[in-house]
Amino acid sequence: MTGTDAMATSIDVLSTLALRGVLVEIADEFRTLTGLSFAATYKSTNASLNLIAQGATADMTIITREAIDRLVRDGVIVAGSTADLAQSGVGIAVRAGAPKPDIGTVAALKRTLLETKSIAFSRLGASGIHFAHVIERLGIAEEVRRKAHISDAYVGELTARGEAEMAVQQISELMPVAGIDIVGPLPDEVQKISVFAGGIFRTARNPGGAEKLISYLAEPRLAPVLIRKGLEPVRPAIRT
User: Fold this and answer.
1) Which phi-psi region, left, alpha or beta, contains residue 47 (left: φ > 0; alpha: ψ -120 to 50)?
2) Which residues, 6+ apart, have CB-to-CB distance to 79 below 8 Å?
3) Which of 10, 80, 155, 192 has the highest CB neighbour number within 10 Å of its CB?
4) Do 183 and 102 share a structural domain?
5) Tally of structural domains, the chain
6) Model pLDDT, residue 1
7) Measured at the alpha carbon of residue 235, what is the angle toward residues 174 and 223, in degrees to the nearest 5?
8) Can you give the residue range of the structural domain that contains 36?
9) pTM surpassing 0.70?
10) Is the separation of the CB atoms in 91 and 174 below 8 Å?
């Protein structure tokens, strides 16, 4: 196969960790239906933005809607090429088999965060940035940060290994991790629903393939896959 042929049948994707489970699951069917394959690099949205600012590119990216819109304004992503793909809230997990703490109300969440001995969350991910705001709002930021374990990959892995009692991340980023149990989402009053969108780079080598993959991921029939992976179809009225 020549380089040109390989380029035409492969798609380079820079994706948020939140969609990793979905992309892994649909890869074979997408290849069967379209004859196209894709290779994905998974980073948090902010880590992806840092890479893009340093000159990194791909055929397409999947990051938060706010970040996509910013890249469209900057001329990095093609205007009109974007689509909302999924949304997800922030949740908490504990090591598999451990007692599940009460996080059903803001007061219970605050109490649980103060009582836990250690907690893992991300620095650059949308969930980690939001959680930093939550603990500031609750007035417990200093106490929580003293016992924090920071990771910009799947923070649930730290909890699975026993390095942190609790993990906070997008529910879709907790679900793929073996060895943890998801306690549930943050209470509505301190929850943030992030919308993830796809868009095509202006410098894409295979924009046609990228367009097909974005269209495939946006199909309503994919809703059961999203739900299995801790995501939801995007609700039109919600833009966060």
Assistant:
1) alpha
2) 72
3) 155
4) yes
5) 2
6) 34
7) 60
8) 3-87+194-228
9) yes
10) yes
Instruction: Retrieve residue 137's tokens.
Output: 């709002």
Residue 71 neighbours by CB under 8 Å, 6+ apart: 49, 52, 61, 77, 199
pLDDT tens readout for residues 152-179: 778 999 999 999 999 999 999 999 899 9
Place of tokens 């995501």: 231
Secondary structure of residue 77 in the 3-state scheme = strand
Q: What is the CATH number of the domain that holds 198?
A: 3.40.190.10
Q: How far is CA 57 from CA 28, 51, 179, 202, in A?
A: 24, 8, 34, 9
**Is there a domain that residue 96 lies in?**
yes
pLDDT digits 0-9 by tens, 10-61: 999 999 989 999 999 999 999 999 999 999 999 989 889 999 999 999 999 9
Q: Is 237 part of a structural domain of the chain?
A: no
Looking at the fold, whether 201 and 83 belong to one and the same domain comes out as: yes
DSSP 64: E
Residues 94 and 159 in one domain: yes
Q: Is there a single domain that holds both residue 95 and residue 186?
A: yes
Half-sphere exposure of 227 (CA within 13 A, CB side): 6
Say whether both 136 and 185 belong to one domain.
yes
Please tell me the predicted confidence (pLDDT) of residue 151: 83
Tens-digit pLDDT profile for residues 63-94: 999 999 999 999 999 999 999 999 999 999 99
Task: Please check whether residue 206 lies inside any domain of the structure.
Answer: yes
